[in-house]
């Protein structure tokens, strides 16, 4: 247990990729606040803001539907919030990082801004994109729907949902602060193979996280087409049934990360009382108090416009979309690591969701330039034209268009004159693409 100013921090559990801490006596300066109870009937969202020192830094409209996407817009930005605590940690987090437990002393000014509660702090990797194929800092000012801003991403093709773990980033700083020299500095640090500085992000938007420190680090990662090492923080909440209540850090109960609320793990008495009162309101028939609504500054964007260079706008190609990350989390692609293309082909047909598995795997191989890609795609084009196999062939043809050689062209010639109009039309695009 540590005492950082008036803020008490207790490490209550260690997990594979991070630690879970209990925080009491914090300032509640960084939080998500409800603006209204009124639901938008068109998109099932409700208005919130993420505030820092009372200043709205992000406008958030999460959805009542846990698998539907929400809307985001930029706010006043970190500069308007005048947060000296973030300035304190910015330089320190760039050097001497060994592990999260030892980094708590560096993070203590930021932790002191939280609300009292239980938090999961992970040392993980994020992507400097928004999950929809756009560079993370190239966001519009107006409210925009993001597929990653959802509690659990729903894959309709296989009727499964999966959490995206805050992997995608959203900016909290106006691009007026962009400094090419800082980007070059971090690019050099990232490229020399030594210790990589961490960014810091707050995960309060499902698959998206608010980048609190590290906008230039994220730019450097984008230029290098690399993931960004990030200290990612998520606040816990109660979930489950009364007899099986957990403090969770996502939509689903995860035994590896979550904490059973049954006194098997000791919480500070203040937090135990806080969560017990929540249970009473939920299950004990206790009258719910009306929520405290945000009444601060008008919620509007104060970000400046910027035309981003191609090195940024085109960097998004090298990162997963939200739907691709969801697929990679559903399927264990590590299982095919040592397989030949023919073995992978056979393995695909032993999966419960063969079509989606094959499509997702082909996309992954093309994106990562796997040396087995062309041979695997050729294997899939040899399937008979029937049922679900036609979807796999179509995906294989679309991905084969990345290859321009005589052998591949012969495959497209054969399909262009085949007796299946759907596949023939796809095949003819091979030459359009070449032009």
- Could you tell me the radius of gyration in angstroms? 24 Å
**Count the strands?**
18
In the predicted model, the low-confidence regions spanning at least 5 consecutive residues are none
- Separate helix tally: 14
Strand content: 15-25%
- Give the overall silhouette: globular
By secondary-structure content and strand pairing, the structural class works out as alpha+beta
> First CA to last CA: what distance?
65 Å
Mean pLDDT: 91
Overall tally of domains:
2
Share of residues in helices: 25-40%
Strand order of the largest sheet: 1-2-3-8-15-13-14-12
**Major sheet attributes:** 8 strands, mixed
Keywords:
2 domains; 8-stranded mixed β-sheet; alpha+beta; 435 residues; 14 helices
């Amino acid at each position: 247990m540590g005492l950082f100013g008036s803020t008490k921090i207790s490490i209550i559990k260690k997990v594979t990729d991070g630690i879970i801490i209990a925080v009491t006596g914090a300032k509640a300066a960084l939080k998500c606040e409800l603006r209204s109870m009124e639901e938008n009937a068109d998109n099932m969202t409700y208005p919130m803001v993420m505030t820092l020192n009372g200043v709205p830094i992000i406008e958030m409209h999460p959805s009542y539907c846990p698998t539907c996407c929400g809307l985001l817009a930029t706010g006043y930005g970190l500069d308007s919030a005048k947060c000296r605590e973030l300035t304190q940690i910015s330089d320190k987090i760039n050097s001497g990082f060994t592990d999260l437990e030892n980094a708590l002393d560096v993070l203590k000014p930021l932790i002191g801004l939280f609300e009292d509660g239980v938090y999961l702090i992970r040392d993980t990797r994020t992507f400097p994109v928004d999950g929809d194929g756009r560079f993370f800092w190239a966001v519009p000012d107006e409210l925009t729907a993001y597929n990653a801003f959802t509690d659990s991403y729903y894959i309709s093709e296989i009727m499964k949902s999966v959490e995206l773990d805050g992997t995608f980033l959203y900016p909290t700083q106006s691009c007026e602060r962009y400094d090419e020299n800082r980007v070059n500095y971090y690019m050099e640090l990232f490229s020399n193979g030594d210790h990589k500085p961490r960014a810091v992000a707050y995960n309060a938007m499902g698959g998206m996280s608010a980048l609190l420190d590290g906008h230039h680090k994220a730019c450097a990662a984008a230029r290098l087409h690399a993931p960004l090492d990030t200290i990612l923080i998520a606040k816990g909440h109660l979930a489950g049934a009364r007899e099986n209540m957990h403090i969770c850090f996502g939509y689903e109960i995860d035994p590896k990360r979550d904490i059973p609320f049954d006194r098997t793990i000791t919480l500070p008495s203040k937090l135990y009382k806080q969560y017990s009162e929540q249970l009473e309101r939920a299950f004990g028939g206790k009258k719910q108090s009306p929520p405290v609504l945000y009444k601060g500054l008008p919620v509007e964007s104060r970000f400046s416009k910027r035309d981003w260079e191609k090195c940024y706008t085109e960097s998004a190609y090298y990162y997963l979309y939200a739907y691709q990350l969801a697929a990679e989390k559903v399927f264990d692609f590590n299982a095919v690591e040592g397989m030949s293309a023919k073995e992978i082909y056979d393995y695909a047909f032993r999966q419960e969701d063969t079509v989606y598995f094959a499509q997702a795997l082909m996309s992954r191989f093309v994106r990562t330039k796997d040396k087995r890609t062309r041979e695997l795609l050729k294997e899939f084009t040899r399937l008979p034209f029937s049922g679900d196999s036609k979807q796999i062939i179509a995906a294989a043809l679309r991905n084969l268009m990345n290859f321009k050689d005589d052998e591949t062209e012969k495959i497209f010639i054969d399909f262009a004159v085949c007796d299946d109009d759907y596949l023939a039309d796809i095949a003819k695009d091979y030459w359009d693409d070449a032009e």
